[in-house]
Amino acid sequence: MSAYRTESLPVVVIGAGPVGLAAAAHLLERGLEPLVLEAGDQPGAAVRSWGHVRLFSPWEYDVDAAAARLLEATGWELPDRDALPTGAELVDRYLAPLAATAQLSGRIRTGTRVVAVSRVGVDKTRTVGREGRAYLVRTVADGRVLDLTARAVVDASGTWGQPNPLGAAGLPAVGEAEAAPWLVGPLPDVLGADRARFAGRHTLVVGMGHSAANTLLALVELQQDEPGTRVSWAIRGRSPARLYGGGDADGLPARGLLGSTLRTAVQAGHVELHREVTLTRLTPTAGGQLQVTGTGRDEAPLRLTVDALAAATGFRPDLDMLREVRLDLDPGVEAPARLAPLIDPNLHSCGTVPPHGHRDLAHPDEGLYLVGMKSYGRAPTFLLATGYEQVRSIAAALAGDVEAAGSVQLQLPSTGVCSTDLGAREAAESTGVGFATGSEHGYSAEGPELEPEPAACCGPAPQPVSIGAPAAGR
């Protein structure tokens, strides 16, 4: 037994997004005291920033069970179960009311950024006497530093503020920082608040995830009303087959429609597709545009002059604030080591993941967990239901209910295009068969169209029980 008593301390939850608030709801049900720290000015701040984007899944699958129980006690009712909410609707009709409940409202601090996590009285190198110590959570709010103590830490801070760079080898392209005035983020509001920036102009979208698809299709719609609007799309791979997806075979019909509609737009010439692109330099021009330089297929020089660049290149976790705690992360994916093989994009592209809970998310420092999108590290295809089940298991574990914590059940909808055999995929690429790699910016060889593999490629064919947030999952 630990010589340190931490029972009276709260469990700090970092981030007041869907998974963070769900964690707080589950902790309360287990008789534990949560303290939710949110860097934004309101709960769901990151979701609000892509509020114009519609989610893949209907409301039926968008709400955590423990959170729903809190809300129903206030008279809240689930919106139309079959409707697909936007990010703004998810905040206004679910996250904001949840955060305003009597049980949670006093346990959430907004405008509070966590800058470091450690153990009270010891640094990362100290082993003797480490186990059982409280956590020290350093925060900054209104310019003031405040250290908090916690019995456990659940990091649900996501990856939204940590975009991958545009350049090759995981590094920024030369001039990327100076090109900031032309960079519009992964999900600009093309048809709304940002319309004037794109109408009648040339936009380059870089990336091969669902954020890229959303932005490209919005630009195509804008073309219909604004002549002269030009849309270019650059991908690092040989084929966009993975993003086009499985169509009707996708367990989430809205996700399948997104890919098939984009495919039609490319085939119709509304989108200029550049394959096998490596961006090397971004240079502002004297005329107020941005020159994008790199190479394309077969190392052919690529030079585009654009008015805006949407970098939908995915995200990576912010691990700096966790430098003083002991983590067990996969060196490539940067996800918890036991979870990484289940989600590694080099091995999986189905959009499914086997059930996993507190054991797969644990680290050498006991009571410390990365959950939600951050638990996926650099891997894409995170779905909210995954995060909801993660925090249910963790809350049970922290409360000492080992049986409930270990009884993890999770079924996720398949994308309808799967490849789990790396060797077979490599052989297919060498012969020109279009297997997807499953990575956000992966590649596949070109060749004949493939029939989608059975949805059971990554396990039994599931029914849709979760949602997917745009790009890199949110």
Give your account of this protein's structure.
Helix content is 25%, strand content 16%. It is α/β, with parallel strands linked by helices and 474 residues long. It folds into two domains: 11-161 and 315-406, FAD/NAD(P)-binding domain (3-Layer(bba) Sandwich), CATH 3.50.50.60; 168-311, FAD/NAD(P)-binding domain, CATH 3.50.50. It has a five-stranded parallel β-sheet, with helices on one face. It has a four-stranded parallel β-sheet with strand order 10-9-8-14, with helices on one face. The protein has a three-stranded antiparallel β-sheet with strand order 4-5-6, with no helix packed on it. Strand 11 and strand 12 (290-295) form a beta hairpin. Helix 1 (18-29) crosses helix 3. The model is unreliable at 416-474 (pLDDT under 50).
CATH superfamily of the largest domain: FAD/NAD(P)-binding domain
Helical content band? 10-25%
CATH topology of the largest domain: FAD/NAD(P)-binding domain
Low-confidence stretches: 416-474
Question: How do the helices and strands follow one another from N- to C-terminus?
Answer: EHEHHHHEEEEEHEHEHHEEEEEHHEHHH
User: Quick one: how many beta strands?
Assistant: 15
User: How do the strands of the widest beta sheet line up side by side?
Assistant: 3-2-1-7-15
Q: Look at the helices and sheets and give the structural class.
A: alpha/beta
How many helices does DSSP assign?
A: 14
Termini distance? 38 Å
Beta-strand percentage? 15-25%
What's the shape?
globular
Mean pLDDT: 85
How would you characterize the largest beta sheet? 5 strands, parallel
CATH architecture title of the largest domain = 3-Layer(bba) Sandwich
CATH class of the largest domain: Alpha Beta
